[in-house]
Amino acid sequence: MDKAGIQNALVAVGLSRLVQDIDRITQVSIRLSTTPVDESALKTGVSKLGGQPDLPADVRWPQWKGLPQSFIAQIRLDEVRQYDISNLLPNSGMLWFFYDARQETYGDNPADKGGWHVFFRDDDPSRLKLQRTPFPATLPESGRFKACSVNFSNEVTISQQPQLEISGLAWTDADQEVYDKALETLITPADRAAPHHRLLGIPDTIQDDMRQQCQLVSNGVTDTNDPRANELSKGALDWQLLLQVDSDEPAGMHWASAGMIYYWIKRADLQAHRFDHTWLVLQSD
Question: Taking the domain 3-283, which CATH number applies?
Answer without folding.
Answer: 2.30.320.10
